[in-house]
Design brief:
19% helix; 8 helices; ten-stranded mixed sheet; 422 residues; alpha/beta
Length: 422
């Protein structure tokens, strides 16, 4: 055969091999095209959340509440499809699996940024506890995309399409203490000029007890009509002077993932269901720990709370922080009670129940806890020795109210820790 013929045959063979290799590299992508992060979100997209459809861009924005103040520690992440829906009842909330997702947590001032997000239309999910907003965004490559703040503002009401979700809150009404006013300051109702919630504007349920309002959904007995009625709520507020009852129902509610808040004279909601965790002063009675009225100052113990308070209440001394309307004294806390009902570092249930002291008294009763939380199975209990709102209302958010607002959001977050990407 002539040399020229050999050259032509060799060239044809190389062309065939090259085409086969090209087709293999185009259609042989072994990366998953479904949401492989292991969570239960309803991603119906055909591409993985980590797949790149084009050159990336960066995202930046701010998370704020419906009332306009910054939210720290909010989870912000990008998906190609819908994010996970929040169940409409108390439930065990372990941290969402962020594997293969672009995500971050907001800073103390609410700011956040995510780098290298593939260009194109994406779904942006913003979540803090039981508050969640989802919005569509367009990522432009090779630039920092400033996300409008309304797309990452935690909602003040539910939307019919479930893109905005807020907690199912229940408030027992009382004349001495008004958590409903606090929820209004979080943007869940309107405030009148004096600082009280305007009945009929609330995005939560109220139950008449020592006080009655026309917009309440029923009496306190209706709240305890059944376990299902109780478990409908993500968090229940028992204000000062409310007295614990139906203890087995409360225990089941908390174990199922419910959050329980009580303040001041409502200390029996802590003592009766969980008597081995908090040692109240004096003889336990209708209002365990009652020593009469007192005002004091405390030290903010948690660093992330300190960072946030420095943003929203910069004039306050975080080592000598004012608290008013105290009535209850706590002698000590136990960190060795109810073994196998606590929460381990990975968010799984196990070990003893270990309470967290968020604020410690430095004046009236030095060393005594002023504000505490503790987990129990899937739920959490939150208690303040002082009232939610002092005897006189105010349309402004006062110092101790900032502490409580921080925790109203924080007690709803998942158990376990996110490892923020570098």
């Amino acid at each position: 055969m002539e040399p020229r013929s050999w050259i032509l045959i060799l060239a044809a063979w190389l062309l065939i091999v090259g085409q086969a290799s090209c087709e293999s590299s185009t259609h042989g992508d072994t990366g998953s095209d479904s949401d492989s992060d292991g969570d239960t979100d309803s991603d119906s997209d055909s591409d993985s959340d980590s797949d790149s459809d084009g050159p990336p861009g960066d995202l930046a924005g701010v998370v704020q509440s419906a009332a306009g103040f910054p939210i720290s520690g909010a989870l912000v992440y990008v998906t190609n499809g819908d994010g996970e829906q929040i169940p409409d009842e108390a439930y065990c909330y372990t941290c969402d699996d962020m594997t293969d997702k672009k995500w971050t947590l907001s800073q103390a001032d609410g700011s956040w940024s995510i780098a290298n997000v593939p260009e194109g239309e994406r779904n942006l999910v913003t979540r803090k506890g039981f508050f969640q907003r989802q919005r569509s965004i367009e990522v432009v490559a090779n630039q920092v995309n400033q996300i409008p703040v309304d797309k990452t503002t935690l909602p003040g009401e539910n939307s019919s399409d479930n893109l905005d979700q807020i907690p199912n809150y229940a408030v027992v009404l009382n004349t001495y203490d008004k958590p409903e006013d606090m929820l209004a300051k979080m943007g869940l109702a309107d405030l009148d000029t004096s600082g009280h919630m305007q009945p009929g504007t609330e995005q939560f349920h109220m139950y008449n007890d020592a006080e009655s309002l026309s917009s309440a959904v029923g009496s306190e007995s209706d709240l305890f009509a059944s376990q299902a009625a109780l478990n409908h709520y993500h968090m229940i507020f028992f204000p000062c002077a409310s007295t614990a009852h139906n203890v087995p129902m409360i225990q089941e509610y908390v174990s199922a993932g419910g959050k329980l808040y009580s303040s001041c004279w409502a200390s029996s909601w802590v003592e009766n269901p969980y008597p081995d965790i908090v040692a109240f002063a004096g003889i336990d009675s209708e209002h365990p720990g009652d020593i009469g009225p007192w005002d004091s100052h405390g030290k903010i113990e948690d660093q992330e709370m300190r960072d946030w308070l420095a943003e929203v209440a910069p004039a306050e001394n975080l080592d000598n922080y004012p608290f008013f309307g105290g009535w209850i004294l706590i002698n000590s806390l136990s960190s060795s009670s109810y073994n196998d009902h606590g929460v381990l570092d990975d968010g799984e249930i196990g070990g003893p129940v270990i309470p967290t002291t968020w604020v410690t008294d430095v004046q009236a009763h030095p060393g005594a806890p002023l504000t505490l939380t503790f987990p129990y199975d899937c739920g959490k209990v939150f208690f303040s020795t002082y009232q939610v709102v002092e005897s006189s209302p105010s349309p402004e958010i006062r110092a101790q109210e900032w502490v409580l607002i921080y925790l109203f959001y924080e007690v709803g977050v998942c158990e376990g820790d996110y490892e923020v990407p570098e």
